[in-house]
Amino acid sequence: MAYQNIIIETRGHTGLVTLNRPQALNALNEALIAELNEALAAFEADPLIGCTVITGSEKAFAAGADVKEMAQKTYVDAYLGKFLEGWTRISETRKPVIAAVSGFCLGGGLELAMMCDFIIASETARFALPEITLGIMPGAGGTQRLPRFIGKAKAMDLILTGRMMDAAEAERSGLIARVVSPEKLLDEALAAAARIASFSQPIVMMAKETVNRAEETTLSEGSRFERRLFLSMFATADQKEGMQAFIEKRKPSFRNQ
Ligand code: CAA
Q: Mean pLDDT across the stretch 107-136?
């Protein structure tokens, strides 16, 4: 498929998706989301790809859902068209996805970033859920995911006032994993992705699945789930290789088996 709204590249074993609607600060329209879903599905199906990075431009990761596309929708249009249903596809990816965020990361843009496994941001990043200023509230998971990242008090502050948070506050609050200078952003995200892709793919995927289970279940159920998957890892060749390589003081060579 020829993409109009994103740019797709591979760097070694990493898939790289660059959101590319510069005229609209990468506002997320339905066409962009469809392309993003297709690109993620292709990387997911490619056995050579171990991790994906999603990034935007220096000025904007994404300034939210496309307000111009949404403005005239009726309830029936939105209901029959299943508006926003395709947006959560990214949270169903099994291989890791990193968001590399610079500039504006607002509304649906922040919701998209929060569906990735972690966010690396540049010092210029600005985060907000400004939907309240448009007469709506977040609709792609923002009211549910933001409190899980930063707690109820700060999430209420951001969602009810629509104010922007800078990268330092976002890091202090636990929304983002790392802050780096703007020049280093993409290199840092690609290096993290390359490191993840160098490990055993099934083990990485099981680790991701298990951490995500913590969001959905009780501590005792989650711990049982963890133990079951942990024990199953002893049936893999990569566990044998990883531990043998440690004992022999050499680099492991994982075969995703
Ligand atoms: N949708 C559509 N177009 C957008 C957009 C958006 N979310 N954000 C920016 N643009 C467009 C602007 O309309 C403008 O286009 P024109 O040149 O044709 O006028 C262009 O991008 C550049 O934007 P600005 O001139 O506004 O740039 P700025 O630097 O002055 O301001 C900004 C930047 C503060 C991010 C401002 O553009 C802004 O407030 N954008 C909207 C942010 C927003 O409200 N996002 C939430 C959307 S709702 C949502 O996401 C719902 C959901 O939960 C799914």
A: 98
